[in-house]
Amino acid sequence: MKFAPTTHMDPFDIYIDMQKFKKNLCLKKYFLKNPVERTNTMEFYKHTTLKEKSTFFPKSMVSQEINTFENMILADLDKMKINKRTDNLTKKEKEALKELTSNEDFEIKPADKGGGTVIMTADYYKEEANRILGDTTTYKRLNKNPTEDIKQRFTDYIDQGYALGILNNKEFKYIKVDHPRVPVFYFLPKIHKNIEKPPGRPIVSGVGSVSNRLSEYLDQQLQPFVTSTVSHLKDTRDVLEVLKGITWEEGFLLVTSDVQALYTIIPHEKGLEATEYFLKHADTLQPEQIVFILEGIRLILENNYFYYEENFHLQQNGTSMGTRFAPSYANLFMAHWEDSFLSMYQDNLICYK
C-alpha cells in the first residue's frame, strides 16, 4: 500500500491548493475572453505534446468575487481546530528505523518485483554491483567525467533538429537541458530469483540528465509504432479480451517465454535496424524525421554514461533501465525479431501475443 490516509490537515497545504484553484479560475476567465485560435493546417513533421510547464497567471482576471471567496476560505481556516500530527510508529520504532537507515553497513532497496523492501549488507550490495559492472562486454570504466563533451553532442543534435524544423519551439525549449545532472547507477534485488543472494537488475537513474527529455521525446514518437505491432498487449484486460475469443481445445498449450536481461543485450545496430523498419513501413513520418529519430536513439545509446562509487562508466551494449524510450525501443526490437519467424509457424499458432 503506497498511500496511508491520515486525519492530519496542514493549513499551508490548503493555502497552496487555494492559490492553485484561484489561478485555474483566472486562466478559465482569461481564455474565455481571449480564445486561442487554432489553425487546421497540416504540419510537415509530426510533433509531440512536450513543452515546459506554463507559469502564466493572468492576475488581471482576479475579481472581487474571487477575492471574497478566498477571504472566506482563509477565515474558515482560522476558525478550524487543526489536529496535531499523529505518528503510526512508536518512539522506539522511529529510533530503530532512523538507526537502520543511517547505518552504512546496510543497503535498503525496493524489491525488483512484489513491492517488498530488501535490506542487504553493504558488502553484498557492492559485490553484486561490481559483478554487474564487471561485464566488460556491456560496461566500460571511463577515465574522466564526460558530461561536458556529451552535453555538447546533445546540444549540436537538438540545435540541428530545431534549425530543420523537426523540433518546434516548444519541443526545443523542453528537450534542451542547460544544467544536466549526472546519471547514477544502482540495482534492484531480484528476490523472486534468489532470496539469500538476489541478483540485481541494473538501473540508471537519469532524471535531469542531458538525455532525459530527449528520451521522452523519442518515446512519444515511438509509442504509436509499438501499439500497432501484432503482439502488443495493453494490459490485463486486453489479455482477457483476447482469451475470451479463443475456444480451448484438447491439445492446445499455453506457453510463455522471457528474455533474460533484454535491455542490456540488444546490439545497437540490430535495435536501430528494427526501429528503422517500423518507422519506414508505417509511412507516417517524413524521411528527414526518421533519420533525426534514429540519430537521437543512437546518440543516447552511445553516450549512456553514469556514476557509481567515484567512477564514471559507459554502457556499451543495449539500453539502460531508467531511460524513457527503453521499453518502446525494446518492444520494437522484439517485434522485429518475431516477424522474422512467426510466418514459419503460423499453422501451429492459435494466438500469439
Describe the structure.
Helices cover 46% and strands 10% of the residues. The chain has twelve helices and seven strands. Helix 5 runs antiparallel to helix 11, helix 10 (268-282) packs antiparallel against helix 11 and helix 10 crosses helix 12. It has a three-stranded antiparallel sheet, with no helix packed on it. A two-stranded antiparallel ribbon has the order 1-2. A two-stranded antiparallel sheet has the order 4-5. The protein has helices at 11-33, 64-79, 91-101, 122-133, 147-164, 169-175, 212-227, 236-244, 262-265, 268-282, 287-302, 326-339; strands spanning 106-110, 117-121, 139-142, 184-189, 200-205, 305-308, 311-315. It folds into two domains: 8-34 and 59-85; 142-348, no CATH class. With 353 residues, it is mainly alpha-helical.
Quick overview of this protein structure:
46% of the residues lie in helices and 10% in strands.
Question: pLDDT below 50 for ≥5 consecutive residues: which ranges?
Answer: none
Distance between the termini: 31 Å
Mind describing the biggest β-sheet? 3 strands, antiparallel
Categorize the overall geometry.
Answer: globular
Rg, rounded, reads 26 Å
Secondary structure topology:
Elements: H1 11-33, H2 64-79, H3 91-101, E1 106-110, E2 117-121, H4 122-133, E3 139-142, H5 147-164, H6 169-175, E4 184-189, E5 200-205, H7 212-227, H8 236-244, H9 262-265, H10 268-282, H11 287-302, E6 305-308, E7 311-315, H12 326-339
Helix pairs in contact: 1-2, 5-11, 7-11, 7-12, 10-11, 10-12
